[in-house]
């Protein structure tokens, strides 16, 4: 961590702050000395960068020993070409990433996703009213997974550029075939398969999340009762039971005819 005297500056309307040894200020900056820049307050709605950036402006003529150039740690940026060091700070907004899971009818998590096209919307209200602020589509096809954000292919299923003010809450919902939000424990049908949908932590306040990054787990539970897979005797007993019911019905019908004299 940085030690020594601390000097603060607030950026102007152009987003710039200058630390200098001008005649109006105390002369405190020296060549060949390590300094640290760290953000204390981020612009409104943005994530604060907690990283410490170290630099030193090198004047080789003022080095007591030419070999001193190698004494600086690797994380210190050394500026040789100019008596000025320009640091460009980048602030980003918040992010919410979708973690998609599937569960069978026995409440067991499935090892692989169920093939289909799943759509999700980002909202600023708990009922999923209105048009989503952003949309994400996940396409599962055998061993292939494709993520799309607002119609563009992306690397991760992440909603980005989210306001991190403390009062702002975001809600993520799966969308049905009519692009309507599917709320907690409601059902959605995807490619003929019906699922019950649940969410891990909706109503996310990005401003209260470290680094402005959060993950929401969306689980689709199989709402169908499927016969066991083919092979072995898996489905045989279902067929035997079905045939037995038909036979019992037929025998009952035959006995009734005999009792009634064949009428």
Short summary of the structure?
The protein is mainly beta and 263 residues long. The protein has one helix at 236-259; strands at 35-37, 53-57, 76-79, 94-103, 116-123, 134-141, 144-149, 152-154, 158-162, 171-175, 181-182, 187-190, 193-199, 213-222.
**Strand composition percent:** 25-35%
Look at the structure and give the mean pLDDT.
82
- What strand line-up does the widest sheet have? 8-7-6-5-10-11
The secondary-structure element order is EEEEEEEEEEEEEEH
Primary descriptors:
mainly beta, 1 helix, 14 strands, 6-stranded antiparallel sheet, 263 residues
Characterization of this structure:
The protein is mainly beta. Helices cover 9% and strands 30% of the residues. The protein contains one helix and 14 strands. The protein has one helix spanning 236-259, and strands at 35-37, 53-57, 76-79, 94-103, 116-123, 134-141, 144-149, 152-154, 158-162, 171-175, 181-182, 187-190, 193-199, 213-222. Strand 12 and strand 13 form a beta hairpin. The model is unreliable at 226-241 (pLDDT under 50).
């Amino acid at each position: 961590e940085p030690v020594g005297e601390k000097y603060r500056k607030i950026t102007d309307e152009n987003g710039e702050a200058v630390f200098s040894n001008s005649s109006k200020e105390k002369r405190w900056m020296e060549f060949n000395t390590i300094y640290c820049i760290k953000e204390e307050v981020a612009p409104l709605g943005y994530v604060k960068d907690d990283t410490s950036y170290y630099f030193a402006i090198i004047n080789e003529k003022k080095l007591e020993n030419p070999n001193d150039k190698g004494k600086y740690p690797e994380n210190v940026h050394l500026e040789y070409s100019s008596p000025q060091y320009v640091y460009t700070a980048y602030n980003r907004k918040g992010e919410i990433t979708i973690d998609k899971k599937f569960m069978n009818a026995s409440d067991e998590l499935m090892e692989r996703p169920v093939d289909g096209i799943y759509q999700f919307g980002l909202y600023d209200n708990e009922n999923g009213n209105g048009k989503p602020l952003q949309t994400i589509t996940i396409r599962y096809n055998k061993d292939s997974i494709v993520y799309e954000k607002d119609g563009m292919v992306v690397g991760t299923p992440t909603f980005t550029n989210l306001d991190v003010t403390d009062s702002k809450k975001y809600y993520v919902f799966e969308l049905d075939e009519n692009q309507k939000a599917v709320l907690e424990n409601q059902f959605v049908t995807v490619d003929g398969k019906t699922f019950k949908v649940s969410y891990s932590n909706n109503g996310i306040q990005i401003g209260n999340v470290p680094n402005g990054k959060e993950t929401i787990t969306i689980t689709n539970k199989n709402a169908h009762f499927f016969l066991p897979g083919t092979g072995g005797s898996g489905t045989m007993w279902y067929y035997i039971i079905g045939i037995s019911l038909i036979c019992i019905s037929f025998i009952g019908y035959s006995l009734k005819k005999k009792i009634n004299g064949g009428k």
